[in-house]
Amino acid sequence: MSIDIIENILFATIRTGTPLLLVALGAMISERSGVLNLGQEGMILVGAVCAFIGAYTTDSLLIGVASGLASGALFSLIFAVIAISLVSSQIATGLALTIFGTGLSAFLGVDYVGLSIDGLDEWPIPLLHDIPVIGKAFFAQDMLVYGSFALFAAIYYVMSRTRVGLIIRAVGENPGVAHSMGYRVLLVRYATVMFGGAMAGLAGAYLSLAYTPMWTEGMSAGRGWIALALVVFASWRTGRVLVGAWLFAFASILHLVLQGFGYDISPNLLGMLPYLATIIALVMMMQRAGTAQLAPRSLGQPYYPQK
Amino acid sequence: MRIEARPTPSHTMRYLSPLLALGLTLTTGAAIFAALGKAPLASLHAFFIEPISTVYGLSELFVKVTPLLLCATGLTLCFRAKVWNIGAEGQFVFGALIAGAVSLQLADYQGFWVLPVVIASGVLAGMAWAGIAAILLTRFRAHEILTTIMLNYIAIQLLLWSVHGPLKSPSGYNFPESELFSPQTLLPTLWGQYRVTIAILIALLMLAVVWTVLNRTLLGYQTRVMGENRQAARFAGFNGNRLIWILLLFSGGMAGMAGVSEVNGPVGQLTTNLALGYGYTAIIIVFMGRMHPLGVLLASLLLGLTYLGGENAQMTLGLPKSITGVFQGLLLFFLLACDFLISHRIVLAPIRSQPPNLSNTPVREVTRS
Fold it and tell me: Which of residues 169-228 of B touch A (CB under 8 A)?
């Protein structure tokens, strides 16, 4: 196996892992505050279609990225209002968000199917991208990939070293205690859900502006669900989300790798790999003792402070 | 005006909430049509009335209702027990795929046994697909929401592989489709030229079975208790894993039957676009129908209509067919929002200053299913 092939596999792994990383980080934050949002898939799709429409109509990728981000956050607000303020079942509301997002994105994007734009360019960082083996993967990517690295670092810092991270975790572990300590549980949860929406929207923007610069119905292809599994796999720890995203990404591009080596296997059969990998990862994770104890204590339970 | 928690959940609101949600969806729909530059009322008419204003249209409604009702009937039991089988779509696809493969194998056989074999193969395939999720949940504790969703994607890839590969019609100009099934493998239709098959009768029969099981049997009692309080079910000595197996296999079998009703009914062959989201729509139906068999029947008529309405809106109003998904999503959102009124009420009274709360529990958790 030549260096070239390894470089290309690593490069593709990081690219493919980027949307997973973004969505999973967002989902992890809202789950750390106790909110399980199964609407990730819908938020990615809405972000993807809005990003594409924004970029196509204004001819500006920056506006595209901004529309993806904003639409994801706004879209998640629907979930926040119903699941947090109106104390509905988070499972049902999240499913509704995915169903609605799938329909809405198909509806909004119907006139944009098949159109193409010039996607995000790669921005090789001088000198660093010449490093053998890893240079191309980490330092010859586009701005959104670098952005995902920066977001990862920021989230890692906030969750483990700051007061904000501590409050989010307190709200997720025990909203009753957090409330009586004077923290505004509902406000924190609104913020984390909308942050998750923005991250999913950004992942959508990455898909429709950089990964495959076009819009197709259902282009997220289950990434929202895989990201949710990824959070479980990472047992709600930021660092493990990063490793997990790249592992899952490697499983998803395995078919390209195999084809590169000349194996002739149906793309449809190989297309099952990321989903199979997700199931296997979930099973392996649950076999390890105590995974269930790692989940935020109030995950999935509505909370309403009494006046 | 203020909002307060009801002492006990309101029974009236439980059944009023879906109607309220429907009203809000129609209002929002009218606003959407107006925003798109269409006459709101005429558009709503084209969406909800016109498709079923002829006998043929009504029969087509039942063609749509058949797979939806079959899937929703199975999910009703599952969701009652809070076993979140989101995999009806995949169980539908796998059932359709296996029933289709068996139909193609039996193309040259005649005899009364052919159709029952085809049906049984589809039902068993759906059960097997759900059984995977059951093993993963009971043996490996992998959450059913995520595993069933993953199995949906895997089933669709299997279908694509089959119609691009082993089951592709040799005489089909290389299109990814199977051969047309022979007549003896198809479900008989109910009336002459209409496409409704006997599968709708199976759906109604199974709905009655579910009603009986829920209200008249120990199994139904256990299902309800498990949904209300899993801890209590365990303390009462119910075998939770056995119940999960039964519920998942049953709903998988029903979704598999839905797959049969579609491929061995109106479609008549295996194609790449069999998965039209019936398995997901069935979830909305079960919530709309309050997990009650009669409600599920009514809701399946409404949701079936959104498919016809979308098709009609495409033809007469020039709107994309995907508006169906928008309406379905709105309906579920409004329903979940209106359900707030089951546990809370709006009081039209001036806010009085309340005495200070002296209890030791300043917070209370409000949970509802």
Answer: none
